Amino acid sequence: MKILLAITGASGVIYGVKLLKKLNEIEDLTVDLVISESGKELIELELEIDHKELSKHAHITFEPDDLRAPPSSGSSLYDYMLIVPCSISTLSKIATGSADNLITRAASVMLKERRGLLMVPRETPLSTIHLENMARLSSEGCIILPASPAFYGKPKDIEELVDFIVGKTLDSIGIDNDIYTRWTEDVIR
Ligand SMILES: Cc1cc2nc3c(=O)[nH]c(=O)nc-3n(C[C@H](O)[C@H](O)[C@H](O)COP(=O)(O)O)c2cc1C
Question: Does the pTM of the predicted model rise above 0.90?
Answer without folding.
Answer: yes
